Here is the input.
Amino acid sequence: MKLIFRIQRSNRYSLIPLISAVKDRMKDVQIFLAKSTQEVLQVEPPAVVAYSFMSFDLDDISEEISHLRDMDYTLIAGGPHITARPFESLKMGFEHVFVGDGEENLVDFLKGEKKTVFDGLTNRIDLDDYPPFCPELDLFMPVEITRGCAFECAYCETPLIGGKKPRHRSIESIVHYCKIGLTKNRYIARFISPNSFGYGSTDGVRPNVQAVDRLLFELKRIGMKEIYFGTFPSDVRPESVDNEILKVIKKYVNNRSIIIGAQSGSKRVLEKIKRTHSVETLLKAVDTILANGFIPHVDFIFGFPFETDEDRYQTLELINKLIQMGCKIHAHTFMPLPGTALERVGSAIIPEWFRKKIAQLSSQGKLDGYWEKQQTLSQRLIGR
Ligand code: SF4
Here is the structure.
């Protein structure tokens, strides 16, 4: 059987675990990676073409599959948009869709199971049962150490896609695959987690300091040259920051920054977006990060349609305070993602006066992020 994974810039981290699962379990499947429609067409049908995409890529994907639908390709899809809108996606022309965890269901499909909707929301996998990346095809990515998030931030798709119970990859499994990575000159360890400091804990919140210490110690012991933890491409929750966890990671890591989510300076907005922490908790976490010699990179989300000018002033006040304390600000624009509690509140609204203030901080090098580009994406999501 031929299986074509349709690789895009935005879906590598979704597809690599699936490619790894197929490579690991289905030796007789021929895998192709296509970076464009033309590359799909270079593979002689019959073949299965697998998509994984975000809601703002819907139009491009729709256009692409309209060309493939009438050929002898079996079109299948999973990922964030499909998980939020499985039945609408079938109408686009996909024959089989995969919601939630995809690894086990994709393997079952390739073995011959023919469901229309494969349910990976109730059938959750154990991360240890599957490789985090695919050394055979030289496809590497940060190791996903935790899937699922105990929080329910109203703008975020993660609890829907990964579930509300954090599932951790074991230290043994992480070290095993990092050792394989080292044989391919992968000397830098990075991780994916909804909350890095929650690694190994039962609630995903209170740090399991012993587990993090042992994980990072083992990675150093096997020869990992650089370790980045609590930073890109993951962040940490304010509630999970304490002296103990910071002192432990400081022994091993190369990052100088810790990425932490604030999202708003307004108590009212924090409540509406269900962040469940206060501005005070955030400030305490920032103090602790600074006291341990790290630079806090603090995430904010602008443009919630229900924000008032009063909320915006409070956010600016907090941003200015954090900058004075020595933080960097990382800015995002709100996106009404399908499947989230805020999917129907409308696209982002950023008044001109607020945009000017943010642009000024950006030009002074105090704030970065793709917040301007995300404004366009936010508009594109309406009606998805
Ligand atoms: S924003 Fe972070 S903490 Fe909140 S639900 Fe999403 S992954 Fe979890």
About this structure: The domain at 256-384 is CATH 3.30.750.200 (Transcription Regulator spoIIAA). The radius of gyration is 21 Å. The pocket of iron/sulfur cluster is lined by residues 149, 151-153, 156, 158-159, 194-195, 237 (CB under 6 Å). The mean pLDDT is 97.
